[in-house]
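Field log, afternoon session.

UNIT: design team B
ACTIVITY: writing a sequence onto a fixed backbone
BACKBONE:
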């Protein structure tokens, strides 16, 4: 292929153009959701820049505080939180934000905003300093309170089935934004020299099964019997164990290649570790749109009714056949416990 032929190839579909084309999927929309997604993409570009230069300007490492989860904050946690909140506030479409890094709801001042966003600004903090993939997870809901007023807790505490959009950004060997608005899943790769996200993974479909299981086996002493038996089953099937420790990175790999990610309830953490509002619901919406499944081991994640902003839940997500197999092992455990009672 000559240079002229290469230059004649199409550059591709930008995220902005794709969003504009897809706006017609929402008969009630007048552009606000499209603008909101652009605001998130803008913040992701800025956070990507900060991550890429973190080792050069001393913004890696611990910040010195703990967040509402009791976890040590990293400097980039704080930076990402500021960037996303600022972008969503300035965009004007969001009335209220729920962030992993803040205990209370964040009122943006945009009382006419029609949407609520729940966000984990930077997932995988423990991997920041060692140059391992990290990410952002976000979930979007239409407010239920009247416009013209501040957002309420009722706006935030909706089941995952009410999401109008969800997505994640993975900052790794390349930076990708993957999202859904309920009409399939599409992935966009960031081209830094042009400053644009381009459609690179259209119509993502997750394999119905896979040969990868992802779980922190360092906690195996605290696993319930059902989880232990399912992990043993995975080993008997010669599945590969892959656990990065960044939820977005583990989920992204399994979404594309097939597999199951698990963060179950343990003896020490009866409700698990991951947060329903801004981690589990968002990824569950995405995986279901891609043909996969997400469960607590007993119940569909997106049907859980949250009671608090930072509620936790057990999490099994990935290829449908593997999640259903995990549910079988969990059902046996619950049945045995019921018999013992």
């Amino acid at each position: 292929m000559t240079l002229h032929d290469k230059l004649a190839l199409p550059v591709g579909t930008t995220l902005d153009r794709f969003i504009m084309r897809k706006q017609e999927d929402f008969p009630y929309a007048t552009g606000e959701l499209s603008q909101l997604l652009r605001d998130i993409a803008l913040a992701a570009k800025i956070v990507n820049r900060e991550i890429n230069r973190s080792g050069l300007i001393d913004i890696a490492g611990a910040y010195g505080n703990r967040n509402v989860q009791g976890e040590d904050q990293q400097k980039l946690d704080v930076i990402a939180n500021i960037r996303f909140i600022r972008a969503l506030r300035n965009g004007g479409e969001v009335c209220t934000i729920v962030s992993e890094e803040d205990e209370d709801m964040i009122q943006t001042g945009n009382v006419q905003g029609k949407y609520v966003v729940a966000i984990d600004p930077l997932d995988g903090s423990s991997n920041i300093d060692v140059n391992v993939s990290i990410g952002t997870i976000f979930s979007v809901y239409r407010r239920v309170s009247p416009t013209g007023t501040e957002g309420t807790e009722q706006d935030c505490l909706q089941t995952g089935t009410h999401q109008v959009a969800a997505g994640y950004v993975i900052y790794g060997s390349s930076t990708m934004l993957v999202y859904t608005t309920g009409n399939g899943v599409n992935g966009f790769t960031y081209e830094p020299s042009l400053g644009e996200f381009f459609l690179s993974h259209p119509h993502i479909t997750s394999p119905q099964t896979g040969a990868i299981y992802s779980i922190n086996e360092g906690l195996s002493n605290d696993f319930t019997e059902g989880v232990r038996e399912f992990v043993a089953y995975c080993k008997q099937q010669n599945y590969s164990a892959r656990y990065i420790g960044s939820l977005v990175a583990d989920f992204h790999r399994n979404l594309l290649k097939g597999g199951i990610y698990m963060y179950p309830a343990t003896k020490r953490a009866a409700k698990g570790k991951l947060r329903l509002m801004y981690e589990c619901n968002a990824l569950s919406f995405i995986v279901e749109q891609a043909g996969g499944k997400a469960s607590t081991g007993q119940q569909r994640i997106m049907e859980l009714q949250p009671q608090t902003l930072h509620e936790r839940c057990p999490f099994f997500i990935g290829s449908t056949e593997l999640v259903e197999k995990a549910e079988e092992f969990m059902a046996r455990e619950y049945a045995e416990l019921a018999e013992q009672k």
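LOG NOTE: The radius of gyration is 20 Å.
NEXT ACTIVITY: expression trials, pending approval
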